[in-house]
Amino acid sequence: MYGLNKELTPSPAPAWLISLEECPAALSWSDCGHWLAAGTVTGGICVIEVATGITLWVRSAHEKGLHTLCWQPGASVLASCGQDATVRLWKISREPQLTLFDEWTINTGGNTWIEHLQWRPDGRQLAVASGRSVFLFSSEGMPQGCCDFPESTVSAISWRPTGAQLAVAGYGGVRLFNVLDLNSKPRKLNWKGSLLSLSWSPDAKIIVAGCQDNSLHFWRLPEGHDAMMSGFLYKPVQLCWSRDARWLTSGGSTKLVLWPFDKKGPEGRAPISIEWHEKPISALATAAGSRWFASGCRGGEVAAWRQLSDTSPAACMQLSNRVECLAWSPVKNGKSLAAASRDGELGIWEMMQ
């Protein structure tokens, strides 16, 4: 039943609420948790002091539009990219202000948009996807090689949580690259279809992808056994793991559909379905330092859950429009949740015990 116990669910006031005045493309917390960076679809970046909600820095960073941004783990460097085929590295200073200290343009001869970039979990490398290739750069911006995906345009990338393996997805499956030896052949996980999103489980044993045909496909590593989960009303591009890798949920419907990934796995078992959101889920996020996770829907509703297997959320908040981005503070045991709507409303909520 939709709305089950919603009237009994706490609705905390935001610590602060501001307007970006544009649709957000991405949110990213600095590793220290002091700053939140927000990028907009028209190419702007703003940096906000989390403790006060004060906007410290605003700049037009990518004239043709921004796709994503992310802070370097363990450092004060912010990477951004967009439709201008350029990656920019920004470093925060004591004021604090962001200073552009490096940039490079990638020309692949076709579509020059840069749609994906991710720092390696240890912060030593930045993976940048453009066209049919993923380019690797050091934390200082030095080129270190390239991972080619000849079958199609790269649609998603995901670093192994531990180690130096990069998963790259597109039409036809996933390729696993050893970034320490790019001359070695990548491992191929084949699938006849178009993959749209990609996630490595926290224990690095499973890779799951959201597919164009409204299904999920996953591979068990190192065996390579694969299976499919179907029946979604929409493309399940949002992927969210529990910290212990025992549960996976995704977007693709109004329900939170939880698939068990314990020793038995989801094969041949019915998932748990939680009816809470009245509109289809549009954003998911897991907290790095705790069991908390969050879900947001096209109706602007944000639910914060103490853990992925709960049947009802601990708190529920309302934004003015469709939820586009969710991000938890990376600080250990942190319970600060950032949420942004399609019309640019951005807020921070503090979850209680």
Automatic annotation (TrEMBL):
Pfam families (alphabetical): WD40
Assigned keywords, A-Z: Repeat, WD repeat
Name of this protein: WD40 repeat domain-containing protein
Species whose genome carries this gene: Nitrosomonas nitrosa
Gene3D superfamilies assigned: YVTN repeat-like/Quinoprotein amine dehydrogenase (2.130.10.10)
UniProt repeat feature WD, residue ranges: 59-100, 195-229, 320-353
PROSITE patterns found in the cross-reference section: WD_REPEATS_1 (PS00678), WD_REPEATS_2 (PS50082), WD_REPEATS_REGION (PS50294)
